[in-house]
Amino acid sequence: MRETMRRRTRIATVLCMLAAGMMALVGSAMAAPAEKYLHVNVEDPTRGGSVNVNVPLSMAEKILPAINNHDLHYGKVSIHNAEMNGVDVRALLDAVRTAPDNEFVTVKDKDSDVRVAKANGNIIVHVIDKKNKQQRVDVTVPLKVVDALFSTAKNDELDIAAALRALSDAGDVLLVTVQDSSEKVRVWVDSRNTQD
Amino acid sequence: MILLAKVALGMAGVGLASAGVLCSEGVVYVKVIEKQPQGLHIRVIAPAMLAPIAVHLAPQPALARAAREIQPYMPAIRAAVDGMRDSDDVVFVEVKGPGQHVEVAKSGGSIVVDVDDAGETVHVSTPIRAVSSTVDELAAASSNSL
User: Fold this and answer.
1) What is the ipTM of this complex?
2) Which residue range is the domain that position A18 belongs to?
C-alpha cells in the first residue's frame, strides 16, 4: 500500500515537472518578439580606428517622432519637388513590386558600375565608383520597408518612422555596406544588442 | 543608560532612513584619473536625488535661460530618456582609436560614459530615473519662465 502511494507520488511529481516544462516552452514561444537593433559599424584599418553604434529600433521609433527640425517632422521627412525630378515614385514602386525578381538597371562605364535589381522581396543596389578609391556600395532594402517609406498621403514625404516599424518586423538584414581602400561601413538590423 | 541607547538607536534609524531616501534614485558616480605623475584622482559618489533638487534650487535667471535654450529639444530628450529606460542593457556608441576609447552604454538602469585616452580616464554613471527627474525639473522651469 505504502509502495503504491510512493509510486503515485513519483508519477505525479514527474507529471507536474513535465507540465511546468511545457508551460515554460509555450510561454517563451508566446513571449513578445525580440527587440531589434540597428547597428552601424565603421572600420578604418589604416588609422586603426572604429566606431560602433547600436540603437534599439523601439527606442528610435520613440525618439524620431519627437524630433522636429528642418525637413524632419513627426517622423516624416519632406523631399523637395526638385529632388524628385518629376518621377512618380509610387507608380515606379508599384511596377517594381509586381514585377518578378529581375535585374532592372545595369550601367557600366569607365567611371562606375551600377546595378539595380529585385530579389527575394528586396531591392538591391550595387555601385562601384572606379574613380573614388574603388569604392563599392551595396544597399539591400526590403520592399516592405520601401513601401512603408512611401506610405504617407503626401507625395513629397518619406515616413521614416513607418520604415523603422517595418524594419522591426523584417528579419535580420544587412542594409548597407560601403567599402573603399581605407574604410568599411556596415549598417544592419538583427536581434543582438552587440556587434560581436 | 537605556534611554541613551534608545536615543542612539532612534538617531541611527533616522540616519539610515534618510540615507535610504537620498539613495532611492541611485547614485551618480564620477571618476576622473589623470594619467600623469601627481595627476588628479577624483572620485565623487552623490545621491542622484540631489540632481533635480539642485536644478530646483539653481538661480532662476540662469535656469530660465538654460530651460529656454533646451525647450525645443525637450520632446526628443524625454523620448530618448523613456526609450533608454525601457531598453535592455546595450552599448549605444563605442569609438576606438589609437590610444583612445569612448563608450556610452546603458547598464543596470544607468547611463554610463567611459572615456579612456592618453591623458586621462573618465567614468560617469548616472541613473536614468535621475536624468528623467532632472529633465522634468528643467521642463517645469521652462514653463514657469514663459
Assistant:
1) 0.77
2) 1-32
